[in-house]
Amino acid sequence: MIPPPETIRVSQRRVACDGATDIPGGAALGHPRVFLQIDDEGYVDCGYCDRRFVLIGGPADGADQSKLPDHPDGASV
């Protein structure tokens, strides 16, 4: 397994991803905004850009991210 392209540690279980939040003026470079829900696994992957959101203090925080399987089940449009 290869690690996700980007891992973002968050403090809330519900997160939004548009793929371009950190790109100045980059809204056109991203993807539609999706809301993701982190479940008991402690992380969720964006189905569009593969960003991984890890809950701070959750079971996946501090784990080797390359050993965790893809977990896109929290995606909702």
Structural description of this entry:
It holds the Pfam family zf-CHCC. InterPro entries: Znf_CHCC (IPR019401). It comes from Sphingomonas taxi. The protein is mainly β. The protein has one domain: Sandwich (HSP40/DNAj peptide-binding domain). Helices cover 0% and strands 27% of the residues. It has no helices and 6 strands. It has strands spanning 7-10, 14-17, 34-37, 43-45, 52-55, 75-76. Strands 1-5-4 form a 3-stranded mixed beta sheet, with no helix packed on it. The chain has a 3-stranded antiparallel beta sheet with strand order 2-3-6, with no helix packed on it. A hairpin with a 6-residue loop joins strand 4 and strand 5. It is globular. The mean pLDDT is 82.
**Count of discrete alpha- or pi-helical segments spanning 4 or more residues:** 0
Task: Tell me the β content.
Answer: 25-35%
What average pLDDT do the residues reach? 82
Cα end-to-end separation: 27 Å
Q: What is the CATH class? A: Mainly Beta
Order of strands, main sheet, comes to: 1-5-4
CATH architecture label name: Sandwich
Specify the CATH homologous superfamily: q5lls5 like domains
Oligomer: single chain
Task: Note the main sheet.
Answer: 3 strands, mixed
In CATH, the topology is named: HSP40/DNAj peptide-binding domain
Sum up the overall morphology in one term: globular
Rg over CA atoms: 12 Å
Helix-strand category: mainly beta
Total of domains: 1
Order of helices and strands: EEEEEE
Number of strands: 6
The stretches of 5 or more residues where confidence is low (pLDDT under 50) are: none
Helix content: under 10%
